[in-house]
Amino acid sequence: MTITQELGSQGGICQDVIFPPGDLYSDEPPLESELHLRQIILLLTCLEWLWRDRNDFYAAGNLTIYYSPRQLKSEHFRGPDFFVVLGTERKTRKSWAVWEEDGKYPNLILEILSDSTANTDKGLKKEIYQDTFRTPDYFWFDPYTLEFAGFHLVDGEYQPLQASEQGYLWSHQLGLYLGVYQGLLRFFTPDGQLVATPEETAQQAEQKAQRLAAKLRELNIDPDTI
């Protein structure tokens, strides 16, 4: 529906200003804090960089999932803070409507806790993700208290995940660990290596090059001539 607003202009002439239809990217409330935003961006960046050669997944943050049996976007919707769907096309979307995506629900969901959402994330949303979405992996994380928990769907019910010796929780769906590193939630490989961001990868490469150059100079070899 277009919205027409009548405004007075100079000379007493009225103009009709027509605003185009809105197309919200999410029906969720605004993010709780800047830290919530940083956490979502970090997870998205790391996973998309790690899987940069894959085109069979979709990851998003604070995006609405519509799941109405009547295929209506006016009812039955939720917007997880972060979710991943496997076995689907990697492309830009404005929302995730289950009936437009071959009936697929997220394989992994993460909620970032806050004072205003913790009870819902641990209660109602957990029930929906378990009983309706049937999402295999569900996690929650509080970036302020560092509370971190994870669950895996077993026989239709979420069972708590047991932490590794490093305190990481295993995602069966992603084949990766999740764990707290420097106050934020990060991905780790099966052997416990931190999944780096593109910037961290570049920094590691630069440090490696500097160490190699230093070693060559110790051998009286000018690295610039190689």
Automatic annotation (TrEMBL):
<dbReference type="InterPro" id="IPR011335">
    <property type="entry name" value="Restrct_endonuc-II-like"/>
</dbReference>
<feature type="domain" description="Putative restriction endonuclease">
    <location>
        <begin position="22"/>
        <end position="177"/>
    </location>
</feature>
<dbReference type="InterPro" id="IPR008538">
    <property type="entry name" value="Uma2"/>
</dbReference>
<dbReference type="InterPro" id="IPR012296">
    <property type="entry name" value="Nuclease_put_TT1808"/>
</dbReference>
<protein>
    <recommendedName>
        <fullName>Putative restriction endonuclease domain-containing protein</fullName>
    </recommendedName>
</protein>
<dbReference type="Pfam" id="PF05685">
    <property type="entry name" value="Uma2"/>
</dbReference>
